[in-house]
Write a structure and sequence with these properties.
The complex is a heterodimer of chains A (about 475) and B (about 475). With about 475 residues, chain A is an alpha/beta fold. Helix content of chain A is about 40%, strand content about 15%. Chain A is built from 15 helices and eleven strands. In chain A, strands 1-3-2-4-6-5-10-11-9-7-8 form an eleven-stranded mixed sheet, sandwiched between helices. In chain A, strand 10 and strand 11 form a beta hairpin. Chain A is globular. Helices cover about 40% and strands about 20% of the residues of chain B. Classes of the chains: A alpha/beta (about 475), B alpha+beta (about 475). At the A-B interface, helix 9 of A face loops of B.
């Protein structure tokens, strides 16, 4: 049992004086300290969090408005720029970087009274599926400490399951919210591309980065998303909200007649049989409530991972250019001139995976290779977008597994980047296409959780959250 | 020996005078600012910082499309050009490559009275870099990011230019277009306009020679001189049977020569890619039409008006230049308002060129008159001339006096009289002076009587002297002839 009630209930209790923001923050900080062995957290923002909590409590005493998330503690993935602690993206090259501005998502949550208490571990620069690429330490899976929590938002996902806070923020570029949610057994929500501002989040791949919550239930995810989703003048790729908003607290959806496509390509070879079984059982449960579940064929889907690992490294190589050791973060001390300062700062500051992606990205953008790789990949991406659009003509939702396996052993895939990349095989398509997607706890393999992935068309986030709410009840 | 033909193309970077930068809401005018004071998280390339397009830049670029006789592209987008340099905080410059905002267009120039057309290849929007300085003897360099993110238009000509004079004329015309379109301060001293000059020579009109690129020229004169020097240098090398090295050169102002900076292009691969942070620029017809309708009168239109008045090219050129020299002082609008009376319009043009413009250029302090009073000044002086009450010398003196007065006189004629500038056209008063002069200069009077008409000039001179310059010389001549009966 969680020590945290629903987010809306916490805020109500704080606002009505039943509890205080300070109590909530202290509870979160104590749990973080108690669960230190899992290495989910890089740093706390304790001082600033307590100060903010006191301010909120004082406002409540004075009868001032404090917002719908008043006193609700949360944990941010360490690629969000946040005051009160360093922002490192779990990379050595950003060690010592104190953000002079905050991300839009954080600002909007704070404006409603939420309080960031800590920064969660991740694969450095969000490159990875296990947190093993963190330059600092590996986060342990709360269900089995010999296993990874998934990634890259592994610290955020673990922190939710370890009950450190009512919600955590992640970022999803190719599955970085959904895959760890599946591995640790929480809800992980990847919004429609453009619905959430990327301003103030360390960029991974600009055309697929999305900012989503990890929570213990769908209602909380929807509550949080509703606070920060929507256009941001600081991010020109943001798009309008749906008129009804995203909160689904107290709502219900009837599954009778709902058309669901089970993605054929996600149920084939290379997928753990036990994982398939969990997904098929979940499909049966949906059917038992009247949903129509049919197999759907997306023939280009097997190309998605290849496309992803061309476009994303291209953008990564470009986005990481600014970390050159000249203005902030790590700078090589023994460099003798500009050239050696660049080479040494980047060679010493970046980890192996960042370097690998910089090299792949540099290669595919080089003159003579651009057309063969980057341009071709964009063409296939368009084809994928069209196939998804077609599938969504027939089905309101698409479902499948989140990852081919449950959480794997620490070190199991560490020496084989290709095997590690395969962990993203069922999540990258939603990012390339831009559609919203959620990972819901659907069952277990042994003691390890397995998630069910549900996708909806672009800008149908509200519909997806309502569907997830219904599925959550069926799967429980 | 066959003649060598020069082929010249010019790339020009113009800084736009928008209030804020291309992608950041930070003040854009870095001319007087202390280093690194016009900088935000975007200019500094902080993690998570995203560019947001300043729409004014698109409007300015669209204006230039019309200035170049074309229209802006309805679809264009930004790309990233990657390289490492301390003045480039993101590690890439945001620019345009595949789909620039302007494709084509042209610039008409006049070289020794001959009209020529220089076609444009493209105009792209891009961001300027910061500025590196290398203190003497220091083991560090300094970076000022005030200029980082200033919007630029890069204007790329076709190699249609064939002489140093034409190169200069082209650069000058770009300056006028930028200023008349109101998109840039175009202040060369502060680097608002910078030119890269591509020159090759060949003795075969069908084959282009190997070109050199002389970078960062910042005056019309240096463009002309650098082109001259490169043509001469390359021609001499070819005549000696040597080869031209394709290279980047710089202009040594002190030695008046170009110098090699690096041979060939260093093996740069800029890894261009569409910028995923910025949606494409899509212009609708309503926007384009709005920009077109709001276009100010451009130099070519002014030239047509002024040449029609009978001004010569040099006068027209003086007016077009002078128009840009003082805030709030317009010559062209005065002329335009008078165009229905051609003579008066021409008077304004002539007086501006010969009197007011030189006076303002030479003056140590600004003339005191209010700019809004200048129209009345011109019309008042013109009326007195028309009435035969001012000699051309006195007209100039009167104009100059009023220009430097704090306010306009309520009565121009009284003011001129007071200053002793009104001509004596009154025959009664002049008759007396003429009689006196004839009595005092009997010999000369006799000469005139004998038919030696050139002596009359001497007598008129004496009348002018006696009248303290106020006599109308035409009237004086008539009276002398009348009194002598010739």
């Amino acid at each position: 049992m969680s020590q945290w009630p629903l987010i809306a209930e916490i805020a109500a209790a704080v606002t009505s004086g039943k509890t205080t923001a300070v109590e909530q923050v202290e509870k979160a900080l104590k749990t973080i300290a108690d669960q230190k062995e899992y290495d989910a957290i890089i740093a706390t923002t304790a001082d600033r969090a307590l100060e903010r909590a006191k301010t909120i409590d004082a406002k409540i005493k004075n009868g001032e408005a404090v917002g719908r998330l008043a006193g609700v503690p949360f944990i941010a993935k360490d690629n969000y720029l946040v005051f009160g602690a360093e922002t490192t993206a779990a990379s050595n090259i950003l060690r010592g970087f104190n953000a002079p501005y905050q991300s839009t998502v954080i600002n909007r949550l704070e404006a409603e009274g939420a309080i960031c208490v800590a920064k969660a571990n991740l694969d450095a620069f969000a490159h990875g599926a296990s947190t093993e690429n963190s330059d600092f330490f590996v986060t342990k899976n709360p269900h089995d400490t010999s296993r990874v929590p998934g990634g890259s938002s592994g610290g955020s996902a673990a922190s939710v399951v370890l009950d450190m806070a009512p919600f955590a923020l992640g970022s999803d570029t190719g599955g970085s919210i959904r895959q760890p949610a599946s591995f640790v057994g929480c809800v992980g929500y990847k919004p429609t591309y453009g619905l959430t501002s990327r301003s103030g989040v360390v960029a991974m791949a600009s055309s697929t980065d999305t900012m989503g919550p990890l929570t213990r239930n769908v209602a909380d995810a929807a509550e949080v998303l509703d606070v920060y989703a929507g256009p941001d003048p600081l991010d020109s790729t943001t798009t309008p909200r749906q008129a009804e908003g995203y909160s689904v607290t107290g709502q219900k959806m009837d599954l009778q007649g709902v058309k669901v496509g089970l993605i054929k390509q996600y149920m084939g070879d290379g997928i753990d049989e036990a994982v398939k079984k969990v997904v098929l059982e979940a499909a049966d449960k949906l059917k038992s409530r009247g949903a129509i579940v049919e197999e759907v064929d997306l023939p280009s889907l097997p190309l998605a991972l290849a496309v992803y690992y061309i476009i994303v490294p291209a953008e990564v190589s470009s986005n990481l250019s600014r970390y050159d050791g000249q203005r902030y973060g790590f700078s090589a001390k023994d460099a003798t001139d500009l050239e050696s300062s660049y080479v040494q700062s980047r060679s010493q500051g970046f980890g192996v995976e960042a370097k690998r992606r910089i090299m792949i990205g540099t290669y595919v953008l080089s003159s003579g290779y651009y057309d063969a790789y980057y341009k071709k990949a964009q063409t296939v991406r368009t084809k994928l977008i069209n196939e998804f659009a077609e599938a969504f003509q027939k089905y309101q939702y698409l479902i499948g597994p989140v990852a081919p396996t449950p959480a794997f052993q620490i070190g199991e895939n560490a020496d084989d980047p290709l095997k590690m990349y395969l962990s993203d095989i069922m999540t990258v398509a939603a990012n390339l296409v831009g559609v919203p997607s959620i990972s819901l706890p659907a069952g277990t393999v042994g003691k390890l959780p397995v998630g069910l992935q549900i996708m909806a068309p672009m800008n149908k986030d509200r519909e997806l959250l309502l569907m997830a709410l219904a599925a959550e009840e069926v799967l429980a | 020996m066959s003649d060598y033909i020069a082929t010249i193309g010019i790339e020009c970077h113009v800084q736009l005078s928008t209030k804020t930068k291309l992608f950041a809401g930070v003040a854009n005018d870095a001319r007087e600012a202390a280093p690194n004071t016009l900088v935000s998280h975007i200019c500094f390339g902080l993690p998570g910082a995203l560019p947001v397009l300043n729409e004014k830049v698109v409007e300015y670029a669209s204006r230039m499309a019309f200035a170049f006789g074309t229209r802006p592209q309805t679809y264009s987008y930004f790309e990233r050009k990657h390289y490492f340099y301390p003045d480039l905080p993101k590690g890439y410059q945001i620019t345009q490559l595949q789909k620039p905002i302007i494709v084509g267009g042209e610039v008409e120039i006049s070289v020794n009275g001959q009209k020529q057309t220089v076609r444009l290849n493209r105009v792209q929007i891009e961001e300027d870099a910061g500025k590196n300085t290398h203190p003497d003897k220091a083991d560090y360099s300094l970076v000022d990011l005030n200029r980082a993110g200033t919007p630029l238009l890069e204007i790329v000509s076709e190699p249609d230019i064939t002489s140093p004079e034409a190169a200069k004329a082209y650069a000058k015309e770009l300056y006028l277009l930028a200023r008349y379109a109101g998109i840039s301060d175009a202040d060369m001293y502060h680097g608002n306009m910078r030119f890269d000059l591509n020159v090759s020579v060949s003795n075969d009109p069908n084959v282009l020679g190997t070109r050199t690129e002389t970078k960062n020229l910042n005056s019309f004169r240096s463009i002309e001189k650098a082109a001259e020097y490169e043509i001469k240098r390359q021609t001499e090398l070819l005549k000696k049977g040597e080869k031209i090295v394709q290279e980047t050169r710089g202009w040594d102002e002190a030695k008046q020569k170009t110098v090699s900076q690096r041979s060939k292009e260093e093996a740069h691969d800029y890894r261009y890619m569409p910028d995923p942070d910025l949606p494409p620029i899509v212009l609708d017809e309503a926007f384009i039409t709005r920009v077109e309708k709001a276009m100010p009168t451009m130099p070519s239109q002014w030239r047509a008006h002024l040449l029609q008045l009978g001004l010569d090219e040099a006068q027209v050129s003086t007016l077009l230049d002078a128009e840009l020299e003082h805030e709030g002082i317009t010559y062209l609008m005065l002329i335009k308002d008078a165009l229905s009376q051609a003579e008066y319009a021409k008077f304004i043009a002539n007086f501006a060129v010969n009197t007011e413009i030189p006076l303002r250029r030479d003056a140590e302090t600004e003339p005191a008159i209010q700019p809004s009073d200048r129209a009345a000044l011109y019309s008042g002086v013109y009326a007195l001339i028309q009435a035969g009450k001012l000699s051309s010398t006195n007209a100039k003196a009167l104009f100059t006096a009023i220009l430097q007065a704090a306010s306009l006189p309520s009565d121009f004629e009284a003011y001129a009289k007071d200053k002793g500038l009104v001509q004596m056209s009154d025959e009664g008063a002049l008759d007396k002076i003429v009689a006196e002069v004839l009595a005092e200069n009997e010999a000369a009077a006799q000469d005139v009587k004998n038919g030696e008409m050139k002596a009359i000039g001497f007598l008129v001179g004496q009348v002018m002297k006696k009248s303290a310059g106020q006599a109308n010389p035409g009237v004086a001549t008539q009276l002398i002839k009348k009194q002598l009966g010739v």
